[in-house]
């Protein structure tokens, strides 16, 4: 008997379970609910796909770190030239380009805009914090 009692009544055919009915005949039946219940995170397809997602998420975070390092380089240049941290023209060009790339890959352009809106907001904060840290302490912003 491979299936728990009480599930034998289900007349579906997905998961093979052997059971001795009252007749003594061994019946084979398949139960989708049981199949789903037993398809826990240890089952191979789900585990493999989650492992792939974990790798992709790691790659995304590593790319963000790389982007952050490039932004730090820009921050240094802008600070030397006393340029503004924010560049609205660059931001709108970047967003248009990314929305186009999203469309080409069947990803929601709004999702990409939200994500990059957040990434750029952090980028701007980081650049301002670096400028602030570089100032003599008596000239730093408080709060
Ligand atoms: O390209 C710049 O000038 C940056 O400072 C980088 C960056 C970004 O994170 O992409 C951040 C702020 C600007 O408004 C535009 C772009």
Automatic annotation (TrEMBL):
Annotated EC: 5.4.99.5
Keyword Coiled coil included in the entry's annotation: yes
Single GO MF annotation: chorismate mutase activity
Domain Chorismate mutase span(s) in chain numbering: 40-131
InterPro entries found in the cross-reference section: Chorismate_II_sf (IPR036263), Chorismate_mutase-related (IPR051331), CM_dom_sf (IPR036979), CM_II_prokaryot (IPR002701)
UniProt xrefs under Pfam families: CM_2 (PF01817)
One GO BP: chorismate metabolic process
Domain of life, source organism: Bacteria
Keyword Cell division applies: no
Gene3D superfamilies attached to this UniProt entry: Chorismate mutase (1.20.59.10)
Name recorded for this polypeptide: chorismate mutase
